[in-house]
């Protein structure tokens, strides 16, 4: 059985206004008010009235979770306690299957993951948690509430109760297990996870890679700061600066004239 699991964000504000404010101030955009799984934030938020529940039919069954990170700018750790996740495909490309307890998924990324249910009815429910990963922090810029969303979206994995085939095991008396996720800045975990991504290439079925290279290009893509214009208050990580993205230390400047007029 295939189950879509879509990670997203919920905003009280107009997202266009959030972006416009960030561009004007030079600081990071305000964070979302909640993370969501299949459109719902889950029971870990005070505002949540309903849960995202995933009911599995029985024991020793394998489900394919089709993970989609639809968030604007957040990478997520994802885990289900007492279960393992086998990654078989990432961004529509098959990979050598590998099993983890926690995975990382980036904005716009997709992954197909196999989850096998317990051999016996566990008499418990399980949180499926998604929490953000912050890949970089300026040591001179302490974390501020406006720059991170330190909250967690939750779904609940429920087993069909064999004693009650018509209803899942949504019994409040059952224990509800929660996974332990990596710290928000655990770059070592992310690097270790990424190192496990391998293609299906084998000696018997090699990939036709072009070995003859005519030209080489080197690109450095990063985030930096730029002095704030005079008589302007910017809210970047260092006083008097604004955030900028750059390729080879050059930032894009929107031209004042339409590009087609240059030709």
Structural account:
There is one protein chain. The chain is mainly β. Helices cover 8% and strands 34% of the residues. The protein has 2 helices and 14 strands. It has helices spanning 15-25, 187-195, and strands at 2-10, 34-37, 52-56, 62-69, 75-79, 85-90, 93-100, 102-105, 110-116, 125-133, 152-159, 176-177, 221-227, 241-247. A 6-stranded mixed β-sheet has the order 2-1-4-9-6-7, with no helix packed on it. Strands 3, 5, 8, 10, 11 and 12 form a 6-stranded mixed β-sheet that branches. A two-stranded antiparallel ribbon has the order 13-14. Strand 6 (85-90) and strand 7 form a beta hairpin. The longest helix has 11 residues, at 15-25. The protein is globular. It starts with a strand and ends in a 16-residue tail after the last strand. The model has no long low-confidence stretch (mean pLDDT 86).
Q: Rg, please?
A: 22 Å
Level of helix content? under 10%
What fraction strand?
25-35%
How many β-strand stretches? 14
Q: Give a short account of the largest sheet.
A: 6 strands, mixed
H and E string: EHEEEEEEEEEEEHEE
Low-confidence stretches: none
Global morphology: globular
Q: End-to-end distance, in Å?
A: 55 Å
Mean pLDDT score: 86
Number of helices: 2
Structural class: mainly beta
């Amino acid at each position: 059985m295939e189950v879509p699991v879509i990670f997203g964000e919920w905003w009280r504000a107009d997202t266009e206004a959030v972006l416009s404010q960030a561009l004007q101030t030079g600081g990071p955009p305000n964070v979302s008010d909640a993370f969501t799984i299949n459109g719902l934030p889950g029971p870990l938020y005070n505002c949540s009235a309903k849960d995202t529940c995933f009911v599995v039919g029985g024991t020793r069954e394998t489900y394919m979770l089709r993970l989609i990170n639809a968030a604007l700018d957040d990478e997520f750790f994802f885990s289900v306690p007492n279960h393992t996740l086998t990654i078989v495909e990432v961004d529509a490309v098959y990979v050598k299957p590998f099993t983890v307890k926690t995975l990382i998924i980036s904005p716009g990324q997709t992954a197909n993951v196999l989850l096998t249910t317990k051999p016996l009815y566990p008499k418990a429910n399980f949180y499926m948690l998604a929490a953000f990963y912050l890949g970089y922090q300026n040591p001179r810029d302490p974390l501020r509430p406006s720059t991170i969303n330190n909250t967690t979206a939750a779904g609940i994995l429920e087993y069909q109760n064999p004693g009650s085939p018509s209803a899942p095991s949504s019994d409040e008396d059952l224990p509800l297990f929660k996974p332990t996720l990596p710290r928000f800045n655990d770059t070592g975990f992310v690097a270790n996870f990424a190192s496990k991504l391998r293609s299906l290439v084998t000696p018997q079925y090699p990939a036709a890679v072009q070995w003859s290279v005519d030209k080489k290009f080197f690109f450095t893509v990063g985030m930096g700061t730029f002095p704030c214009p005079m008589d302007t208050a910017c809210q970047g990580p260092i006083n008097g600066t604004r955030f900028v993205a750059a390729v080879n230390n050059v930032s894009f400047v929107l031209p004042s004239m339409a590009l087609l007029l240059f030709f």
